[in-house]
Design brief:
The protein has 460 residues and is mostly helical. The chain has helices spanning 23-31, 41-60, 66-80, 99-116, 128-132, 138-174, 194-215, 237-251, 261-266, 269-298, 320-344, 354-378, 386-394, 404-407, 409-422, 427-435, 437-443, 446-450, and strands at residues 3-8, 11-16, 179-184, 187-193, 221-222, 256-257, 301-302, 383-384. Helices cover 60% and strands 7% of the residues. The strands form four sheets. Strands 1-2 form a two-stranded antiparallel ribbon. The protein has a two-stranded antiparallel sheet with strand order 3-4. A two-stranded parallel sheet has the order 5-6.
Length: 460
């Protein structure tokens, strides 16, 4: 493979002849090889949008010649369309607050724009810094792009949560008439319906959906135009205002310029707030998935059979989708811890640990999105076992709690003690004999069990 030589302030480096990245990216490739993931493609796409907005602004204000600007915009459009994805090879974990990723993007755009202008990679007819990075700093470009990437991700996550919510709501209706015993502290409790149990899943996901949708507002304020520390030093005032308008138009997002650019450059707490909301969703997904495993173990529901479960036990089918969902949720919770730690360790005017924060937050969003979609595909195949639900219900001593408004605590206790002496009948049959089938059926009807309390006829 032929190489080309590029120079910077530290000396010379050999690069692959046809690589669209440059010497800064090459040094970063050699310096940072500590992680298992590359820079998230969603962040790269967002950075390209930021570069395009900056180029459009500089063109409109006369800071870039038309020919150069058109070449830069054309290169950006190609990358946004999915080309040159292999030209962004950097490790997600890197020093420098994201400078290496910003320069990787600058160099790829510059080399492709140079090629479109009749040159070849390394000619730099378009300069990565003087042209592509004009009036910018990593410190305003990178956090702005991260916010754009996160907002796009949150929109996808909200849609995925809506799908999952819808599937649980369908099951809520399907199971509305199936009476079963509830459980608290891994012990039998009072009766409810299987539909009501699934309604709790649906409501939890509904809150997640709403929180995800609303938390987008927390990161709409960006520091683009603030350059190095948020003051806008070395950037024209007209550009600072215009670049936000251009970025808003390109993304279709309701982003706005930070009134205090120093604050938005120095502090990352808005990312922590969003991540905390996502952690709540991860907690719900873990809890719901584990509940479904338990209901399947009890035989009250049957999960779809998607995979042979054992290499030694024939016929064993495991709840693998739910186990995967639990693991994804736990990993998302861990990612939130990294977002928190990375934000806390920033210092003075920038957050030098944004690469870790970005990788963790975007991974958190992707994990939750894919998990919601995986579960939304799985839930429709769940079936109920009304016979098993009834079996547990009719033999549960806690069934007597439903009759407290009729019997009172003391009489209910006497009836329960009487039944427990021999247990020849199911508890429900025993109650039929003692109280009458009509009263028992009415008390244990789905409508009565899911009604809000009972009517107080004495005081009505």
């Amino acid at each position: 493979m032929k190489n080309r030589v590029e120079k910077d302030a530290l000396g010379e480096k050999q690069l692959p002849e046809n690589a669209f990245w440059g010497i800064h990216t090459q040094r970063a490739l050699e310096n940072f090889n500590i992680g298992t993931a590359k820079v998230n493609p969603a962040l790269i796409q967002a950075l390209i949008l930021v570069k395009k907005a900056a180029c459009q602004s500089n063109l409109e204000l006369g800071f870039l010649p038309t020919v150069k600007a058109q070449a830069i915009i054309a290169a950006c459009d190609e990358i946004l369309a999915g080309k040159l994805t292999d030209q962004f090879p950097l490790d997600a974990l890197q020093g420098g607050a994201g400078t290496s990723t910003n320069m990787n993007v600058n160099e790829v755009i510059a080399n492709r724009a140079s090629e479109l202008s009749g040159g070849k990679p390394g000619d730099y007819l378009i300069n990565p810094l003087a042209d592509v990075n004009l009036h910018q700093s990593t410190n305003d470009v990178y956090p702005t792009a991260l916010k754009v990437a996160v907002i796009f991700g949150l929109k996808e996550l909200s849609q995925a949560a809506a799908q999952l919510q819808g599937e649980f709501q369908k099951k809520e209706k399907e199971f509305a008439e199936i009476v079963k015993i509830g459980r608290t502290e891994m012990q039998e409790a009072v009766p409810l319906t299987l539909g009501a149990e699934f309604s709790a899943f649906a409501e939890a996901v509904a809150r997640d959906r709403w929180r995800t949708f609303k938390c987008e507002e927390r990161i709409r304020v960006v520091n683009m135009g603030g350059t190095a520390v948020g003051t806008g030093l070395a950037a024209p005032r007209k550009y600072i205002f215009l670049v936000i308008d251009k970025l808003r138009d390109l993304t279709g997002l309701g982003i706005s310029r930070a009134e205090n650019g120093v604050d938005q450059t120095a502090n990352s707490d808005s990312f922590v707030e969003v991540s905390g909301i996502l952690k709540a969703q991860a907690v719900n997904l873990v809890k719901i998935s584990n509940d479904l495993r338990l209901l399947n173990l009890l035989g009250e529901i049957e999960l779809p059979k998607v995979q042979v479960g054992s290499s030694i036990m024939p016929g064993k089918i495991n709840p693998v989708i739910l186990e995967a969902a639990i693991q994804a949720g736990l990993k998302a919770i861990a990612a939130d811890s990294l977002v928190t730690a990375a934000a806390a360790r920033s210092s003075l005017q920038i957050n030098e640990f944004l690469p870790l924060l970005a990788d963790s937050l975007l991974e958190e969003i992707e994990l939750l999105t894919r998990t919601c979609l995986m579960l939304a595909k799985h839930i429709p195949g769940i079936t109920a076992n009304p016979v098993k639900c009834l079996e547990y219900l009719e033999n549960s001593p806690t069934l007597v709690t439903a009759f407290l408004p009729v019997l009172g605590y003391d009489r209910a206790g006497v009836l329960l003690a009487e039944w427990q002496k021999d247990r020849k009948l199911s508890f429900r049959e025993f109650l039929n004999q003692k109280l009458g089938r009509e009263l028992v059926d009415k008390t244990l009807s789905p409508n009565n069990l899911t009604a809000l309390g009972y009517p107080d006829e004495k005081n009505s």
